[in-house]
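Message: A physicist's question: would you kindly supply an amino acid chain plus fold tokens?
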Amino acid sequence: MTTLSLGHDKLASRMRIVSLQPSVSVILNSLGHLDTLVACTRYCLDVVPELRRRNLPLVHDAWTTTTDELAALKPDLVIASVPYRQESLAAILKAGFSVLALAPHCLADIYSDIRLVGSVVHATEKAEAVIASMQSAIAEVSSKAALTGKRPCVYCEEWGKPLIHSQLWVKELVEAAGGDFVGSPGTVTEADVIAAANPDVMVMAWCGAGMRVPLERTVEKRGWQDLHAVGERRVFCITEELLNTPAPTLIGGLHALASVIHPEIFGQMQSPQMRCIDFEAEPSKLV
């Protein structure tokens, strides 16, 4: 669901945009319109390093942004994306700010959001090119994955307390990469339910954790030592930027998933944005 409120015509002139979510900044970057940003969150700096050189004012995210900090910026448009708190956005609207709230569930929604943001910044052709590039990359990976006759079962986790399955767009990427997604996207599950499924591959991409997911300790505490994925050392941490951010960066997540689901086809990807379980890791590395 997308909500757009523009109190008057701001599209005819150069936009002054505040980004409340990394995915928004990634989309604007892919469209070549980072210059429309007058503020962003500190999380955006990690996903779009170019923003660090721009020294923009930093605001809180879509959960905690206040109208006071926005008032000082005088934005034409505030763009938020999931996850956000509706009460926060309602307060921003009530204060008279124009708000674009994006709530994608699947890849098709993400493409629509790219088109919408593209139309706002007058970059419709570039938006279509970005979408076409994403679709081409997914089709290429899917075609290669189809060459194998097996589809490993893949458990993807967005959060660990409670255990939450990754979103629908991750399920779509897993399937494109030649795997079968375990469970129902975006829902809460239990350790014994996953144990019963006995997945071939496990991927942890916890929101806000980056590469700090304690794979080894998590397996031990959940009693997963005898699972197939654990025995085959196919338990991975993939940074949230690649899987939880509904933006063009998902293509990096697709390639990471392909490399862990079918390394015999795609090779074992070496990246600072992913790591494999290591039972010989020092205890200090498990926190």
The first strand starts at residue 3 and ends at 5. Residues 7-13, 282-287 have pLDDT under 50 and may be disordered. Residues 15 and 36 are 6 Å apart (CA to CA). The first helix runs from residue 22 to 30.
